[in-house]
Amino acid sequence: xxxxxxxxxxxxxxxxxxxxxRPAKRNAINxxxxxxxxxxxxxxxxxxxxxxxxxxxxHFSAGLDLAEHxxxxxxxxxxxxxxxxxxxxxxxxxxxxxxxxxxxxxxxGGMELAAATQIRVADEGAFFALPEGQxxxxxxxxxxxxxxxxxxxxxxxxxxxxxxxxxxAEAERANFLQYVAKPGAALDKAKDLAARIARxxxxxxxxxxxxxxxxxxxxHDDGLFFESLMAAMTQTSPDAQARLxxxxxxxxxxxxxxxxxxxxx
Length: 265
Ligand code: 1HE
Hints:
The chain is α/β, with parallel strands linked by helices. It has helices at 31-47, 66-69, 74-92, 109-116, 132-135, 143-151, 153-162, 168-173, 186-198, 202-216, 220-235, 238-248, and strands at 2-4, 7-12, 15-20, 50-55, 98-102, 105-107, 119-123, 127-129, 166-167, 179-181. It has a 7-stranded mixed β-sheet with strand order 1-2-3-4-5-7-10, with helices on both faces. The protein has a 3-stranded mixed β-sheet with strand order 6-8-9. Bound molecules: 3-methylmercaptopropionate-CoA (MMPA-CoA) (1HE). The site of 3-methylmercaptopropionate-CoA (MMPA-CoA) has 22 residues, from helix 2, strand 6 and helix 5. 3-methylmercaptopropionate-CoA (MMPA-CoA) (1HE) is lined by residues 25-26, 28, 59, 62-67, 84, 105, 107-109, 131-132, 135, 137, 139-141.
């Protein structure tokens, strides 16, 4: 385990495990942590096929470090927010896909960080909140774009205005989570999913992570055009040719049919 300040980093085969490691402060995200996260994401993108972001201790993250934030001038606040945007964009639209394994508090900037990952898996007991209204601030880590798209602007406004806290079951129904795991099982579930993702063609993983969010920003016509380019590019790669041949020769792994094969959740 090669530790960096406030972040742990471990390469487990093709999977980079990135742990938020400020448990005494509930993994509140200060400048040092976000900078260490940037380095970890960059390293993972160079040597892993997929990354999993999780929190050490009892919580994923209590969000922005409020002690540090209290000291910022307006222009420093803009630079701070733009730095988070750049790092979280590197997670959402980087070279490899990322998952987040969530437990305990997933609050404010912690929820924004999770929203930047492609797949969110949470323990049953995890809880989700955006107490920005109560704190007199606004989201600054991309939440008004990413979280609002996932759960809708109406739900996000409710959480920010009233301080409503969602359970994992509610967050799954609200479209924030793709998976809810038994207590303590989210990280293992995320690693299991990551291992499957690592077996995909890297170019497909890249296309899925990068093209999908961008296509959501395009018009219908431009989206379809972009899709055709991605489809042609991936399908003509040597990796795709080999995998399609494997399927036709009945040498590839079959899809798990619900009710007949292994559990899909
Ligand atoms: C912190 C932070 C923090 C804890 N910044 N220090 N985020 C929030 O508004 C969430 C604030 N935190 C909480 O509501 C609670 O800490 C938790 C529900 C997450 C956890 O409760 P608990 O009882 O386990 O811990 P605690 O006793 O409240 O906190 C333990 C220590 O962590 C304590 O420090 P200590 O030195 O007194 O031991 C807390 O001060 C510290 N701590 N959370 C700084 N957030 C890019 S914009 C994003 C905008 C936002 O993220 S707004 C949401 C901010």
